[in-house]
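Raw record, unedited: Olfactory receptor
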Amino acid sequence: MSEIYSMKHCLKYPYFTLDLAATEPFTWSGARTYSYRRIWLRRALFTFGAINLVYQNIGMLIYLFMPHE
């Protein structure tokens, strides 16, 4: 039951979260160059979702401050 884990195995879930947030991993100066794939569709969906959240929050605030009987 002994398995050898590499850094790639340990970074599976952090890279998944970076993909969900459409961000790139931190790189420091002097490190080997690493090209992280950018998927334009994910970035577009993230931007659409962020704009939608702002729109929904503004609508909720307008409804909150409207005079009710």
